[in-house]
Amino acid sequence: MARSLLRERRFWPFLLLQALGALNDNLYKNALTIAVVLRAGALGPVLVAAAGGIFILPFLLFSAPAGALADRLDKARLVRLAKLAELLLMLAGAAALMAANAASLLAVLFGLGVQAAFFGPVKYAIVPELLAAEDVAAATGWIEAATFLAILLGTIAGPALMALPAGAGIASCGIVLIAALGLLAARLLPALASAAPARAERRHLSRETVPLLRMARARPEVWGAMLGLSWFWAVGTVFVSEFPPLALRFLGGGASLVSLLLSAFVLGVAAGSIAAGRFARGGLRLWPVPWALLAMALFAADFAASLSRLGARGGMRGGGHLLASFAGGRVFADLVLLAAMGGVVSVLLYAVLQGTPAAIRAQMIAANNIMNAVFMLAASVALMALDASSAAPPTVFALLALLALAVAGGAFRVIGVARRGT
Questions:
Q1: pLDDT by residue (tens digit) across 234-243?
Q2: CATH annotation of 8-191
Q3: pTM for the whole thing?
Q4: By the 8 A CB rule, do 63 and 373 touch?
Q5: DSSP letter at 317?
């Protein structure tokens, strides 16, 4: 069945353009962080933390109206418009990379955030319109797998390309070429009819967000899952944003060390997600969630302690040098295991949202995207404040571990109450 689905004319172009888009976003974002850290001097870590918030802010502002718009128009046409916007933005991003202009790089990043916010609801809603109902689950699995692989490739490629002598030029050509290929794939999609309900046409796009969050808040199981998922994305924001200044400044390494840290985190999330997916195959089980959150707190604490031992040494140069020491091996292991626990939390809590009634499922996912954006933006602002106060990375991760411990304690209480009530 998988082979026939991948040959399906109505599906493979969308799978390809989705993977290319994820690859491009991550290639650009990680190339940007290297350029900013290397060129902005003491302001580099602050600007990198700001970059996370700049990309996330559009999700907070535009997710709800984007979902309403997706219900009104031909989704295939919206996909093509989104990919055209990506190509134009990447042309501007290429020029900004070549000029190494931090303000221009961040402006393009905001534009990509807007583009992603409007594309997000479409990419989940279009699959049932492209395929028969019995193929939707398998198609979603392929999309998730391809997207995760693309994120990993972009995460590695961004810093790796920027480490080359002509890295900015190579990265600039790459992001434009990938965007062009995505637009070509989008043009292969068939036209789809709009299936908007009459009530959606009478609603104001700017007034979608508050009613959406109220609807989610009225469902305790959904609200709890959204808070847990948002915490996971906040933790991810802290780690990914801190990797470049951590590797380049605190540990005295190079771009290859940034690639190692980013790759370890992404592979850990992937491994945890796959394991959780297999575990949950027989039905929804939430009892592992608080234990996974507790493990995240413990691994974060050990990560901070191991970094403190490494910081005095400096001169890590690359990943091999990091792994050659016991403390460096602990840093790597803590990072992989913490990310794996995050993957477990993410998959099990997303299952709660996916189990909501079909009539409100997409709305609950949109509400979750908004909450994720709030938490990620808050994490970025907190990082900016900590970096501006010259807080060392071990201090940042130690504070995160303490907060994670409190979150785990709350999860034990909530899950325990839910189990006693069933």
A1: 998 888 888 8
A2: 1.20.1250.20
A3: 0.72
A4: yes
A5: B
